């Protein structure tokens, strides 16, 4: 065999499956195994080069040097503009191609974007990476971005987009060991609708599973990968593991005893590419070879994985005589067109949260620009390197006179007889005698930045560099700011009863001590921590207030640092604005009521005081290199506020369920089920004009619902309006959302202009997952269409009558039930009933139960047979009507079983199980699992 130019796999005129089959047939088993790692080995005899999966391109090309930085994903989503999001994806793809042409090994064309996890909880550390808490909107926007990345050619791919992270992933706390409980309705009505659209459309051609477990089974081993994801994709689907996740199957999760068994299982589950040990392929390939040699894995599974890999590489044109998209040059990167697009995207992503008429700014003579973020543009973990940055201060100063201050305290730290001093060359901090006044005094001065969550950063006044951990555990002032995978520039100030503080280094968990040589070092010994007195040399809030008092308008720019107090590996604990930033805002507002609050963040804040007192509030994500220009465009009225929230803004963390509670239905979570009054609702965003809604009409034909509404600009400025269409099902056998987004239309209206907007969706989109029959059903029920400016600002409604079917009572005799298909529960979690397939419910606390509503026992059920498992044994009681006081219909004794996957069948006779009743499984004992229930009709043996 050789790599002749006329080999079938090199012929782009042949069908893809023929080319894949030809190339696969030319590879030896060892060569096939060599393709299963992230760093795929070259096959020189066939002319196959090396190939690497995984180039980050979440909101522009990342990690490879200066490239256009667009707004964060949550910001792109806030545009509610799929066409714009698609153009940003296309620009990012072009820059990937330009970097790939320059360095193929450094910039691969399999890109790991977009993130499609629905944003059910704003505390998630990676909130800025996602699009929306609404699964449908997530699907629309992720499909748009993926299509931009993939390109428009039906055969050839610009890049190979990878949706991530499948499945049920919204917590960083214990992310490799926690299990996300996804009952069937949550899976089919909330999670999958976010993940599947980009795959079904063919826009995304790859998937990355998540680190967590789902219903007790590692997501990387989920049967849904093959059963659902591959079934949804129109072509071959490449499944890549997350970084170091394969080894987690043994080390962190303990799901398998050794890596050969784990990797064999992963292959069967659908993992095609193992992202493990960086570029060191040897260990992974060795475990896979052992799995084959010992019969743990079938060579056919290797062939399947390689087939998926080769299909994507062929679609990228790698083996074509004239590869498509080969002409993209370096001048594409940060080109004027991409700079203009970055400004447009940043501008249209800005959301006007509140406005009492202060905005747009009307030719103020002097603006005080204040805040930690006022003269800063931040990169996040998945940003590219900023080629340039326009801050809020830069852009406002280009338009009018400004004064500026960061509004941070300048402090000195005193211990014993000396002050902490910093040199101007990034050397170690040490205690020294207090300097005299004058330039030398700068050596004891540090600016204190509050990033929330009790995380502070110290910037040395001597050289403007931040205090960080040095290589030998000393503290040095050498960092440009908080940065890196492990941020080593943040501290907690722990107060002692005498008013002094000790400094706790967050990254290491160590304390700051003063060594014998007077140098500040880190120590694990809390008793050795040095006590410091904090002397405030300059009050940041007072300074900010003084500047604001002499200005016409004050603009306070506050928010988060993308790498501190919430990011990958770290969830947030609250929704509060950092305390020092809040103090600055209050002081400025007291000094000058004409205060605008500009929030820049990757997640919502509970800014209740600001909402009550500040006249104008705008929000944007970290907006990339053109952030300041975009912000000024909106503040000064050159652009209409076009952004809308894609996530509920709650008043407080107390309004949220437990971070690990993924059952949004039971927890009344997200705008779909939340019963309270949010600070700002899903879909919220004001404009500088006013819009009237009237004449709603609904048509149902051919399986489609078409909604018409007339909107009129009743104001004196042009209006950018996002008309949002929700539905509500008013009666149901099961709990339904209070409202659900079905579509939207975006229009620009001149003053006085009217336009009729049409929004359409499929009748099938109204389906509920019927757990009893295991399928999606459009229920026969009254509904209404709600049209308005947000989920809580509904302007007009109309009845919605669509064909449906009744959801009948449960039939206990139709076949065995899956216990996970319950309707309600208390104190149970979901767990595997088999190592590779099957799920069960397991008691996790005393008095746990699972309920099955409306069970039609007819003339009666004689017996019930359960598939059960319990380490220590126990009892399952079947009660009717009520889990606590209802009559006992039967009792099953569960034998002890050491193997958690060994389910035994036990049976109980039933008493009183007649007519239509609610049935409750009540677990008496810890860790009792039930997989299935099967009933015998009265009068029938067996």
UniProtKB/TrEMBL annotation:
It comes from the Bacteria. InterPro entries: Actin-crosslinking, BXL, CBM6, Cellulose-bd_IV, Fn3-like, Galactose-bd-like_sf, GH, Glyco_hydro_3_C. The keyword Signal applies. Pfam families: CBM_6, Fn3-like, Glyco_hydro_3, Glyco_hydro_3_C. One of its GO terms (molecular function) is hydrolase activity. Belongs to the glycosyl hydrolase 3 family. This is Glycoside hydrolase family 3 C-terminal domain-containing protein.
